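To: structure subgroup
Subject: Chain for Friday's discussion

All,

I'm putting the inputs and outputs inline so they're searchable in the archive.
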Amino acid sequence: MDRAGRLDRRALLTGGIACATAALSGCSSIIASPVAADASPSPRPTTPSAAWARLMKGNERWVSGDLQHPDRDPNRRQFVAQEQQPFGAILSCIDSRVPPELLFDTGLGDLYVMRTGGETIGPVVTGSVEYGPMTSGTLLIVVLGHQRCGAVKAAYKSIRDGEPLPGNLQAIVKALQPAYDQAARKGGTDPVETMARAQVELTATKLRSNHDLAPLVGKGALAVVGAYYSLDTGKVEVLADAPS
């Protein structure tokens, strides 16, 4: 090979390395950009209505698939490591298809989450719901029921047929009895769905009138919202008392 050929080959190799380096640099910037964009924590809502709006905007992203995954990077982890101030508390069902942090597209340190079968409550669960508003200034409580709730369906059949469920499952049935009674009075073509919605409204009302939470609700520092999640669409709808 003559000298010109060697120079051409050297130029080709040098150009190839430069292109590869540029490509890798470009890939690095693409990978790094979401972390950089998510580095600073999202401002905490300051009113119940702003907290509710934040959740509903997140749910809109969940429905459309245009997710932001906010507050989920190492910087956020460090930011909340020593102290937390979640703006919302969610009481939802244990159903694996209804993860509150995902369907509201929220991040680390944004929500207190309590999950029980059919959103049933008792002293320990109620105390857990009270914790955020009474200690951290949490602005919003959402009682979140959902479509085709297995706990409600099982309780409905148990009460209707007079056949108790085994073990501590019967405690869930007992807690859901008022929702069953309300659904029976309302009637309708889908009594299980009616019962599931009744359970949300009854639980939200009970929390809203709670001895310790009612004063916060009364002065506008807290809102208790009843909401319902569609497994089919991913959309959350309001059943009662969304703050305006």
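Points worth raising on Friday:
The longest strand covers residues 140-146.
The chain is about 50% helix and 10% strand.

D.
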